[in-house]
Amino acid sequence: MSDLVIAPPDVYMCYPEGIVGIPMPPLGARIVLKKLPRYKAIGVLTGSPLAIAEAVNYGIVHVVNRENLFGDAKTIIKGLKIPPLIRHQLVDWVRTSINAIDSLYLDALSSVLMDQGRRDELLKAVKNAKLKCISRYRGT
């Protein structure tokens, strides 16, 4: 999760790590908690998928067509005109969010990874979420 998310319309925003109690890093969590209604935010933070079409309605994602995904994304990024003061404020906001990754997040992550049973639970949750969150796009 970042301050500019670009996605095709046929994908889902998923955070399967939340299923096993690993909190979303602060930068993403702040955006989810600020933009989504509380019940929906709790669902996303605890592993429920959110359709990109719905995420667009909350201002979390900018949709681009899959046919020219990278070209359209590049155009959007190049079109951003960010004055130095605003850029400085954005950097400060991101730095503050990164600094907020404290021991709570790292302890939760390491405790899951160090315990074989919980690690297996995490891998299973990610695999199951992949099936739930898979794009409807099937390539040609």
Q: Point out poorly predicted stretches.
A: none
User: What share of residues are in beta strands?
Assistant: 5-15%
Apparent shape: globular
Q: Please, what is the average pLDDT? A: 80
Main sheet characteristics: 2 strands, parallel
Helix content: 55-70%
Radius of gyration: 17 Å
**Number of DSSP helices?**
7
Characterise this structure.
With 140 residues, this protein is mainly alpha-helical. The protein has 7 helices and 4 strands, in the order ββααβαβαααα. The protein has helices at 26-35, 38-45, 52-57, 69-79, 84-99, 103-114, 116-133; strands spanning 6-7, 12-13, 50-51, 62-63. The strands form 2 sheets. A two-stranded parallel ribbon has the order 1-4. Strands 2-3 form a two-stranded antiparallel sheet. The protein is globular and about 50 Å long. The protein starts with 5 loop residues before the first strand and ends in a 7-residue tail after the last helix.
Describe the protein's topology.
Blueprint: E1 6-7, E2 12-13, H1 26-35, H2 38-45, E3 50-51, H3 52-57, E4 62-63, H4 69-79, H5 84-99, H6 103-114, H7 116-133
Parallel strand pairs: 1-4
Antiparallel strand pairs: 2-3
Helix pairs in contact: 1-2, 6-7
Main attributes?
single chain; mainly alpha; 4 strands; 6% strand
Brief rundown of the structure:
This protein is mostly helical and 140 residues long. 58% of the residues lie in helices and 6% in strands.
